[in-house]
Design brief:
The structure holds 2 protein chains of 2 kinds. Chain A is an alpha+beta fold. Chain A has a domain at 345-408: Dna Ligase, domain 1. Helices cover 30% and strands 23% of the residues of chain A. In chain A, helix 2 (34-51) crosses helix 6 (169-182) and helix 3 (79-103) packs across helix 12. In chain B, the strands form 3 sheets. In chain B, strands 1, 2, 3, 4, 8, 12 and 13 form a 7-stranded antiparallel sheet that branches. In chain B, strands 10-9-7-11 form a 4-stranded antiparallel sheet. Chain B has a two-stranded parallel sheet with strand order 5-6. In chain B, 22% of the residues lie in helices and 43% in strands. Chain B is an alpha+beta fold. In chain B, strand 9 and strand 10 form a beta hairpin. Chains A and B meet through helix 5 and strand 8 of A and strand 1, strand 3, strand 4 and strand 12 of B.
């Protein structure tokens, strides 16, 4: 079983010989005493607990807040790997934004028959309310978290697009800080691209996408649902590090189609809101009327062009997994080129042939809800019991439109510190891409999630996943070293 | 017909309010069967009004009032020239393809009972236009008009099971059933001139529209069993009540709110003779 998977350090050598360029990290893994690695990992987790980087597991109300386990052994990308990856991400994120602008604008891609019109127009993620309204600078997905997996040396695949409010960037930053403190020798051995520029890059992007009428020094804020939200730590962490106000709905008021923030010096006009509240809760006058988290009139201010919302309402349509399956065509349509980052093969259960194939092969496939996230509502055939599979079969038959199926991927592994020593564990990767209307910036790093259970392919924190630091090496540190 | 609409809403608060924000969908938009001659929104206090169009093409007015305020009178009035086009919606600026109105919402979702009801209609007639007329007729017969019911948000399935409701329930069930038959349908809010002489009404009216092959959008009023004629003033559209409701608001300040709505739709001619 071990050699079925590509290991990012050892390739297919089963731990005998590192891949070219990975000799130094292999040596570090081999030579650092396990006890020392364990001590450092415990120290990192203690720090995270003290900082309060915790999350709530949904559907597990009694459970106290947990921290996401941290693994001390980093994942490493060579400069060459990263350069290909970031090219592909730029192409994909640019296309995603053009797609969203088109879908709520002229709908050329539907008229040209590239994507079925009903898939978009009847999709719960399509928001008729924002139809015909172009957001400032034409950007919908200012912050994208693209979930990727790897199956071989050059095989990077996109698993999901997150154009709503991708979370997890605080782990990228905190993990790096912990690594710099606990494993300084790694950063002496390697030239690693820094990730600590992310808050500044985010702040600059926010300024750049302010409405045209805004002052030269636009007022930007981060809107959080509040401290009970599972990602509150990230909200306060980001606001602190960007240097902007962290606000709740009660701190904002809309008057005359302008958003104002209450401050002790009186009210202050707000130009840009990085909102970490879902569309449904954003404004009780037009979305869910029972929302206590939103700001009445916010959408009117948005329609009047007086405020930029990051990300723009309506972008959730791009996260739909049935629409994901058309991304290669969508990228080609807007960029004129083949997608540099391929998709995972996907069967759309709304199509009769695909449904039949899926039902016939449930035990081998991964089946997901088209609008699901966080690892909820999904079936991993090979690791499920017969009852689980049959239960899912019934759900799938009742609502085929609601599901897609994908092959169970041979996700790459990265050496991970486990109870039984250092073992390969499956990982995925979420880089963060910022769009400001002029270009796409991908921070050289990201969130590597690792499935800590042996053999598990589900990396979601809610399903027992952990995280690792993701090091991107600078070109100059690429020189192959003398063999040891 | 030249119709005069006078739509008054009086709010009284048991305690003074600090702020009031309201979203109003009260201004009709022109199309072939309807031409707005004159339209006003008046508020009896210092208020700021801002207009925009939403994604459906509805005319939306935002109303901002600072407190302290213990009562507000809102008056929407104007004149519209209407024409009987047998319910057909022509020359309207359609902002969304008809397919966007195939999807169901919380309030307009079909349950098994509504789906069965829709299937029977689909079986009885083959022509979509006839199907919609039959749907309207069956709803008129089946859902008893019960004006004493609270105008709370009731979903289509609940109203269908209770077999009674107000015009908005009829409209929701109509949309749910039509969509279950694969026909795009939408919720419409507006006003109705009562030929029986009842000038005063306690609420605005609601009905539905269905998009039919080679005809386009056609109105159906299942609470009255007819397609809208020149007695109708069409104000706002949406997937359900929430998209097209005349008013959505929030107030800041405690206490209770009491509300009185008075809608008068008259023939402009007869009013000038008063």
């Amino acid at each position: 079983m071990a050699n079925r998977y590509f290991d990012e350090i050892w390739g297919n050598s089963r731990g005998r010989k590192p891949r070219p360029g990975f000799e130094s990290i292999a040596r570090w893994i081999r030579e650092t005493p396990r006890r020392e690695l364990r001590r450092r990992q415990d120290s990192a987790e203690t720090a995270f607990r003290q900082l309060g980087i915790t999350f709530n597991v949904y559907g597990d109300e009694d459970e106290a807040e947990r921290i996401i386990p941290f693994d001390i052994i980093p994942r490493v990308f060579t400069a060459d790997e990263w350069s290909k990856l970031s090219d592909g991400l730029e192409q994909r994120v640019t296309a995603l934004n053009m797609f969203l602008e088109d879908v709520y604008g002229d709908r050329k891609i539907l008229n040209d028959g590239i994507v079925p019109a009903d898939l978009i127009l009847c999709n719960p993620g399509f928001t008729p309310l924002v139809n015909g309204h172009r957001p400032p600078h034409g950007i919908y997905a200012h912050i994208c978290g693209i979930d990727m997996v790897r199956t071989g040396p050059d095989e990077f695949l996109v698993l999901e697009d997150n154009a709503r409010t991708p979370s997890g960037v605080s782990y990228m930053l905190e993990n790096r800080e912990a690594m710099l403190r606990l494993c300084p020798e790694l950063f002496e051995t390697f030239e690693v691209e820094p990730v600590d520029g992310y808050p500044d890059a985010l702040g600059e992007m926010m300024q750049a996408v302010a409405p045209e009428g805004a002052s030269g020094d636009p007022c930007c804020v981060l809107l959080t649902p509040g401290h009970f939200n599972s990602a509150f730590y990230e909200h306060s962490f980001l606001a602190d590090n960007i240097g902007i106000e962290l606000v709740e709905a009660a701190d904002l008021v809309v008057d005359d189609d302008i958003v104002w923030m209450r401050t002790i010096e009186g009210r202050k006009r707000v130009d840009v809101i990085y909102r970490r509240i879902d569309d449904d809760f954003l404004d009780p006058l037009v979305f869910r009327p029972d929302s206590m988290l939103g700001v009445p009139g916010l959408m009117a201010a948005y329609f009047a062009g007086n405020v930029t919302l990051i990300n723009a309402p309506g972008g959730g349509i791009a996260d739909d997994k049935a629409i994901y399956s058309y991304m290669p065509e969508i990228v080609k349509y807007y960029s004129g080129q083949d997608a540099k980052l391929p998709n995972v093969e996907t069967w759309r259960c709304r199509e009769a042939d695909a449904l039949k194939y899926t039902l016939d092969n449930l035990a081998e496939l991964v089946v997901k809800k088209v609008d699901g996230s966080g690892g909820y509502g999904m079936l991993v055939g090979p690791t499920s019991t017969t009852e689980e599979i049959e239960e899912f079969r019934a759900a799938l038959k009742a609502n085929p439109d609601g599901y897609i199926a994908q092959p169970t991927l041979a996700l790459s592994t990265v050496p991970t510190l486990t109870e039984k020593g250092i073992k390969g564990r499956h990982v995925d990767f979420r880089p963060f891409c910022l769009s400001d209307g002029k270009g796409v910036t991908t921070i050289p790093g990201g969130l590597t999630r690792v499935a800590l259970r042996e053999g598990s392919l589900v990396v979601n924190s809610s399903q027992g996943g952990g995280t690792k630091d993701s090091l991107v090496l600078r070109p100059e540190s690429e020189q192959p070293e003398a063999k040891d | 017909m030249r119709l005069h609409v006078d739509h008054r809403t009086d709010y009284v608060f048991s305690e003074p309010q600090r702020r009031l924000v309201q979203l109003l969908r009260v201004t009709p938009v022109n199309f072939a069967a309807q031409h707005v001659i004159d339209w006003h929104i008046d508020v009896d206090c210092d208020a700021r009004l801002r207009n925009h169009r939403d994604g459906f093409g509805n005319h939306v007015t935002m109303l901002y009032i600072d407190g302290p305020i213990s009562n507000v009178a809102l008056r929407v009035s104007g004149e519209v020239l209407t024409d009987d086009r047998s319910g057909m919606i022509e020359d309207a600026s359609e902002r969304l393809p008809a397919q966007a109105f195939l999807r169901s919402t919380g309030l307009s979702k079909a349950d098994d009972a509504i789906r069965t009801f829709a299937k029977e209609i689909a079986k009885a007639k083959t022509d979509p236009l006839e199907q919609m007329h039959l749907l309207m007729a069956r709803l008129l017969e089946r859902i008893q008009f019960e004006p004493t019911l609270d105008a709370v948000e009731r979903d289509a399935a609940t109203a269908f099971e209770a077999s009674q409701g107000v015009c908005q329930d009829h409209a929701h069930i109509f949309c749910a059933a039509a969509r279950a038959m694969g026909i795009p349908a939408r919720y419409v809010s507006g006003h109705l001139f009562r030929r029986d002489g009842a000038e005063q009404q306690e609420a605005s009216h609601a009905w539905a529209e269905a998009c039919l092959p080679s005809i386009g959008w056609v109105g159906f009023d299942p609470a009255n069993g007819i397609s809208p004629d020149d007695a109708y003033v069409r104000v706002a559209i949406g997937l359900d009540y929430r998209d097209a409701a005349p008013v959505a608001g929030r107030r800041v300040g405690g206490g209770e709110e009491s509300l009185a709505v008075d809608v008068r739709v008259t023939q402009a001619q007869s009013q000038s003779q008063n």
